Amino acid sequence: MSYSTAESLRTVTLDDVRGAWKMLSGVARTTALEGSRHLSRRVGAPVHLKCENLQRTGSFKLRGAYVRIAGLLPEERAAGVVAASAGNHAQGVALASSLLGVRSTVFMPKGAPLPKISATREYGAEVRLQGQVVDETLAAAMEYAHETGAVFIHPFDHPDIIAGQGTVGLEILEQCPEVRTIVVGVGGGGLAAGIAVAVKELRPDVRIVGVQAAGAAAYPPSLAAGRPVSVRNPVTMADGIKVGRPGDVPFGIVGELVDEVCTVTEDELSAALLLCLERAKLVVEPAGASPVAALLSRPGAFEGPVVAVLSGGNVDPVLMERVLRHGMAAQGRYLAVRLRLTDRPGALASLLGALSVADANVLDVSHVRTDPRLGLTEAEVELHLETKGPEHCAEVNRALREAGYTVMD
């Protein structure tokens, strides 16, 4: 579904991005560019992290939202603005509207994480929970705009939004003038398109690589078809880039200026988020970690210096826990084993003792005594263990077998 108008299909120029940069002075932070020795070793070239996760509202979305709303006519401002979002765009619109003195209404899915709902309200928006999925929420916001005259603020499909996001590219060139590759997550395409407009005009030699989650990758088939193509039922933990169809405006720019769009798996996203937390000490949401996932999955494919854009850090604590566990499992740092033992006093203590000798940390124990599958004197135990990696997993399994236990799974 596209919401572009004839006006919104105008091109975005470097002058637009420069104008947006001036407009955002004192509003958006010039976020840090941090070097990563660990990633540099993995990639074999200098790697820097552009920390938009530390931007106001926790993502780059404030940039585009502010530029879009600041450009409204007085009568449009008086009518207020409306947006639909599960999180980052909602907060960007809410804060931008408050700073500009514009009334904002934000529609969010009923299942949106509570911290994102609370933050959007605290930034000054009226929040309405409607729809189970973003498409339903988007339809409700569009209906509200039609009924009230409020201006709909699209998350990516408007040149003012793209110009605002493009200021990230100007900052990268200023902070790392020797950059050779910029890697950026892609959902609807607003951020990638804006960075491409800013960078390619000034440094056409810089390679720009977009990254999508494999389960929500609408750009590869769209680029192949030469037009935006919808992906049915996109599935990924990276809700910030979970978009079923490219925007018309960013699609044209991405197709012309972005050198490559690649995909990453859920395991690679989890491992990247974990690395950002452990090695860079940065809280990054899965969408924001997608460029790091691409670097980890294809370490020799990027000419350095490389800048990876960490687009956001608004991650629900419940999702963070799940993703971190998933990331540790993907790295072989979790081991789940199921085994049977004789049901007698001290049997479980003996098993835990064997695991202690093997230096495995027990996270969870499930002990089943009554089950038709078990013999009269048998018990079944399922253990979730924290290990030090794949080699340690093998050592733990070996230690259990040497101690006389039959590992079933």
TrEMBL record:
| Cofactor(s) needed for function | pyridoxal 5'-phosphate
Keywords in alphabetical order: Allosteric enzyme, Lyase, Pyridoxal phosphate
Enumerate the spans annotated as ACT domain: 336-409
Enzyme Commission number: 4.3.1.19
Identify the InterPro entries for this entry. Answer: ACT_dom, ACT_ThrD-II-like, Ser/Thr_Dehydratase, Ser/Thr_deHydtase_PyrdxlP-BS, Thr_deHydtase_catblc, TrpB-like_PALP, TrpB-like_PALP_sf
Q: Which Gene3D superfamilies match?
A: 3.40.50.1100
State one Pfam family annotation. PALP
Record SUPFAM superfamilies: Tryptophan synthase beta subunit-like PLP-dependent enzymes
GO molecular function: any one?
Answer: threonine deaminase activity
Q: In which pathway does it act?
A: Amino-acid degradation; L-threonine degradation via propanoate pathway; propanoate from L-threonine: step 1/4
- Which of the seven top EC classes does this enzyme belong to? lyase
Q: What protein family is recorded?
A: Belongs to the serine/threonine dehydratase family.
Complex and partners: In the native structure, TdcB is in a dimeric form, whereas in the TdcB-AMP complex, it exists in a tetrameric form (dimer of dimers).
- What name does this protein carry? L-threonine dehydratase catabolic TdcB
